[in-house]
Structure formats: C-alpha cells, structure tokens
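Chapter review: from sequence to fold.
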Amino acid sequence: MRKLLISLSGAEYGQTSAGALIAGAWVGDTLDEGAIACFESDGTLIDPAIPVVSTSEVYFGLGRTTYGLLTSNLIDRTTLSYNKYAYLAPRAKIMLHGDDGTTGNELAFPTIVAGQVYGYMVVDNSQPIEKTSRLKTYSVTAVTGDTSTTILTKLVAAINADTARVCNASIVNVNDGVLFTGITAGVDFKATPFADMKTLVSGMLVEGNGTAGACTSAIIDGVFYSASTTVTLATKYGHSPVLLVQSGYVGEGTSTAIAATEKDYSTTQGNINAWRMINELWKVTSRVVAGQTYTCYVIEWVASKQSVNIGQLDGNAKQTLVLAIPSGDAAAILAIDNILAAL
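The token string follows.
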C-alpha cells in the first residue's frame, strides 16, 4: 500500500474549522479541510504538545469537506521508520562527456580524417514523446587541418547558437570534455554522442545536478555533480540520523514533484498506473497547489497480511505513507516532528 496525504497551507494539525483541537474518539471527520492529524488505533487524537501514545498501532488522517476523512492504513509502531525531507529547490541538470576524474576516461580523438562527422543528440525529456522537436542533433564535418579542439569548439558553438536549445554547452579544460548544463532548473534532458563522435571518440558519459554555470566537478557513486547537497534526516527513537546525498535535479518538495507522486500513488483513487478510458473520463481533483513548496515525510512499516498459502499471518507487506506539509506551516511541521519522534 502506498498513500499520499497533502495538507493545505494554514490548516493546523488536528484542528477543526473553529480552530480547536478535535476532542473525543472517532471524530476525525470533524477535521478542518486540509488538516492532518495522527490518531491512536482507538480513534483518539495524539496531542502534538504531549505526544503520549498508548496503542501499538496508529494512523494518520486528512480532513476533507468532500468525500470525508482520508486515512492511512494502521501503522505498526514496532516496524515504523521514516525520513524527513525539507524543500529543496530544483537545480539545473548537468551532463559531461569526457573526463569524469577517472584515469582513462579523458575525451580523446584518434587521427581525424576529413569528412568524418562528429556530433551530439540532445533530447528534451520534458516534452511529450510524440513531439518530434524534442530531439535535436548538432554536428560538424571534419575538414583538413581540424583538431579535437577545433571540432569541439565548432560543436559547442552550434549548440549554443540554437535559440530553442534546452541546455548550454562548454568545453572543460581545453578538450577534457564537453559539459552540458540545463537552462531551466528541474528540466530533464539527455545528451549523447552520435556518428563518429560515438564510434571514434573515447570518454565517459555521466550526469548529475548542480547550479547553472558551475564547472567544478565531483564523482559520487559514479555520478557527476557540479555541486552536491546533503540533507540530514529526522531522528527516530532508537535510530541514528542518516546523511543522504540528494541527487534529484527536480528538487525535493516542489509542487511538480508532489504532483508526480500523487499520480503514482493514486491507486486508492482507481488508478492502476496503466492507461484506461476511465482514467480520462473521471479523475479526482489534485490536492497539489501550484507553486507551493512542501516538507515531506516518508513513513514506512511492515504490516501483517494473511498468507494465501498457509493461512497464517505473514509479516512482509511493506507499507508507505507520504505526508506533504506546506513548508511555511511551521506549527504543523513541528507537530509531525514531535509525534513521529514519540512513535
């Protein structure tokens, strides 16, 4: 099971539309529109100020004026783990063809023969696949007297002269490599060598993310970065903080990223992630607010399920719940922090 709960900006944790914490058991349907709350398995709200939890299972709920309370499955506290991701702005994607810092991967040309064609194909993956203009080729034909430097200079000039290009190109350290830097942060593209550039020229093709214009490179797990970013994850009781390298150039907690997750997680809304006519005839309105930034919590646990083979409980059904809280709602974020730490 995978589920996503997206709160609305200004909707405080566990509150009714009157601005007070809900009171009593099994009254989650009185939650304000867009408010998130965590409940013990007996339906009692967990107080964020003094998060005392007496049941072995809990669940989260999202207040909705239409359709009623949206809840997660019961969460087994003994197997629960979670990560917290603060908003991270999109970065320009970068790709490098050539020297990635590893000996033997330097961009090297053999003997250049007049008439050979060198070039790159660049695909704008943000455009629909049926749009032919998403694929562009840039090439030069070698002439007598050409060197690797003159060929790369001509290629880079051809790419940068395209007013509709998706990335800029530059030469790194004379001819160690060609660096492709996305013009728009968060936009995916793919640059690959073709023709004689592919068959006759050595070099490593790697990709990563960073700030447009940055040329300082680093290799992390085989990926080229112009600037790496580290994020400290939230600490859960009994677990040490973990340091992760954020590699997504689309960013963390952007409305675009949350909308993509919402689409992927929408099985509870009838979506099986395969195209069907009904998907086009009926859709639940997205809860993502365009331009909103979010702090996200990814909560995972293992739930027991009935085995169809032996008729016994089999604890291997992994569950995932994502909470997306507007990054400006400090009180709601603090409430979730306190509750998850108590679980």
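Two observations follow directly from the output. The first strand starts at residue 2 and ends at 6. Helices lie at 148-160, 196-200, 255-264, 277-281, 330-342.
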